[in-house]
Amino acid sequence: MKRHALAGTVTAAVMVAAVAVPALPAQAAGAIPVVDIAVSGNQATISQTTMRPGVVEFHVGDTFPIPEQFGGGTDTISIVRTDALDQVMAALPGAFGEDPAAAAQAMRTAHALSTWYGGGHKGDVWQVYLPPGNYYALGVQSTVMQMAQPVAFTVAGQPRSANVHAVQAAIWATGPVGQNQFRYAQLGRQPVMWFAFRNNAHEIHFLDLTPVKPGTTTAQVKKSFMSDSQGPPSWVAGEPFTFDVVSPGVRVAIKHSLAPGKYLADCFIPSETDGMPHALMGMYKLVIIK
Ligand SMILES: [Cu+2]
């Protein structure tokens, strides 16, 4: 993007930059390193175990299956920075259980001891700024269920670029603890090929983005959330895109085409206040992609 913007503009500044470039390592010229994350048997894998602070682009090659008795489907592979992985993993089962107080405590512990930089399914691509620290790529549910092993990596050294890819839309979380909301803006450019997911709130959030029928109303969505009925509501129009947890202060750019239409953004992480899923406390929003 930056390179593209410069391409048509010959100025003194550009010429100075051009002279300066050969003195810098190739990576400093703005290339964003691609880091492949995948699985091998019950082990999470990563294509490089050390990297410099800066924006990296994660590509998910494959993820862990979740056994049928635990709901089936596939786990995400997530990126987490922590110096206390064992404590975080020991706390997290509470977040998946039935006890609201245990779920709230699990999320408070995870929030206090770890920072999450997103997570995806097979084929997903995102960019995020990683500050220095000790990190892991892992399947959250697989690791909690002790069916899979995380892989460690380290971010240290000279900082690189902090700029993620340009986006055409942004979805962000906002609000105080216990009062989380989604906000949305399309940034005037179409079509949406990359979008930002930003956590400006004070709890950890994921993002479900589900295509819905054009006439779907907030009242219908609320009614569905408050009912006990199983199976997808009648207003659902397609498979959701799900992006895993992002901590307060973290912004990711997700490479994912969003066809024009209406979508529901929601998050079901248990609240740190009382363990109630955020969506049931109002963290859902109908958005229109043009
Ligand atoms: Cu949430």
What's a concise summary of this model?
The protein is α+β, with helices and mostly antiparallel strands.
Q: If you had to describe this structure to a student in words, what would you say it looks like?
A:
This protein is α+β, with helices and mostly antiparallel strands and 290 residues long. The chain has two domains: 32-155, Immunoglobulin-like (Sandwich); 169-289, Cupredoxins -  blue copper proteins (Immunoglobulin-like, Sandwich). 19% of the residues lie in helices and 36% in strands. It has seven helices and 17 strands. The strands form three sheets. Strands 2-1-4-7-15-12-10-11 form an eight-stranded mixed β-sheet, with no helix packed on it. Strands 3-9-8-5-6 form a five-stranded mixed β-sheet. Strands 14-13-16-17 form a four-stranded antiparallel β-sheet, with no helix packed on it. Helix 3 packs antiparallel against helix 5 (100-113). The longest helix has 14 residues, at 100-113. Mean pLDDT is 89; it is low at 1-29. Copper (II) ion binds at residues 180, 205, 267, 269, 278, 283.
Strand content: 35-45%
Q: What Rg is obtained from the alpha carbons, in whole angstroms? A: 20 Å
Domain count: the total is 2
User: What would the average pLDDT be, to the nearest integer?
Assistant: 89
